[in-house]
Amino acid sequence: MKTDVLIIGAGLSGSTAGRLLAEKGHKVLIVERLKHIAGHCYDYRDEYGITVHKYGPHIFHTNNEKVWKFINNFGVFHYYQHRVLSYAEGGVVPFPINRTTLSKIFGRPFSSAEAEEKLREEIVNSNFNSPPENFKDTIISQVGERLYNLFYKNYTLKQWNTEPENIAADVAKRIPIRTNDDDRYFTDKYQGVPQHGYTKLVESILNHDNISILLGEDYFKIKKDINADMVIYTGELDKYFNYKYGDLQYRSLDLKMINYEKEYFQNAAVVNYPNDYDWTRITEFKYFLDEKSERTTVCFEYPRAKGEPYYVVMTKENLKKRRLYLDEARKLEKTENIYFIGRLAEYKYYNMDQVIEAVTDKIDTIESG
Ligand code: UDP
What we know:
By secondary structure, this protein is α/β, with parallel strands linked by helices. The protein has two domains: 2-76 and 192-249 and 312-368, Rossmann fold, CATH 3.40.50; 84-174, no CATH class. It contains twelve helices and 17 strands. The strands form four sheets. Strands 8-7-13-14-15-12-16 form a seven-stranded mixed β-sheet. Strands 10-2-1-11-17 form a five-stranded parallel β-sheet. A hairpin with an 8-residue loop joins strand 13 (270-272) and strand 14. Helix 1 runs parallel beside helix 12 and helix 4 (112-124) packs across helix 5. The structure holds uridine-5'-diphosphate.
């Protein structure tokens, strides 16, 4: 089989790359291991009419106008501001920590200035390494030990199965700390969920005469049969190199979907469970698109070591191995016309908008080089 461009993976990174290259006139063949497009943002309507994110909750948010414009070419976005509660000390409070969270935990009202003062007091009375170089110290340096223990420590242990001091500070930077009343999970300028779902959105990205797709095919099994001038790889980085520097860890999830015979299950789209139960969080999908139904579908997330690779695990060891693999990948990019992009192929904790930005930049560089 002959094609101009071969793309491995029909997730958001592969699909975006495919579209950009197809629009530039290249014939693109996409080979996808799963039996569907859209990778881990795949969603479907269940038998109760609720749009379910098969691989866990995905909320699109970005400050990048170019990315927002790009993605809006392929589907209408439903206005949605994500809100999360955390189950702590027997009740639910807003998360990330804001003024309301502090008032509920410390049992008295705070002005924003008092909330800041309270956090300073908590921090002063805490032990941590400064400058903070890991997840634990980064959080304690912002909220102190008590709140760290309440909201972060055990969630992080459950999610990553390692002590939070082994996790990179960058992971902590995903979560803001607030002393105002803003209870949104993200403050990006543009936020939403595709009105007709991510699968339809990606279908529309892929809907181009120059794009063909092979689903349910393992690239590593058929690679000798495909002849391509350019290859874009979005699969696992270590797998491409046959694990020569050792395995990179990925974190998976067991996602248990349950439909309940009641209108609502909980008071927010997502409730986190840092300290209780084996799951990390419960998502109630109908909130995303404000879907009306007498029943509701929720998803319990249980972190797992094995299974579909959803997350990269940002420990020192993994990041050191990543460097070795990535150096090799970047070398190949210069000599072999193969490019590595996306969460798995760059071993990077990208959000969806960051994937689109990275892919766009990469294609620009390739096409101008
Ligand atoms: N986190 C935490 N407590 C929470 C939520 C998140 O300690 O209630 C930490 C945890 O280590 C998690 C990380 O922050 O893995 C990033 O959280 P985010 O919500 O961005 O995770 P994702 O949605 O990507 O699973």
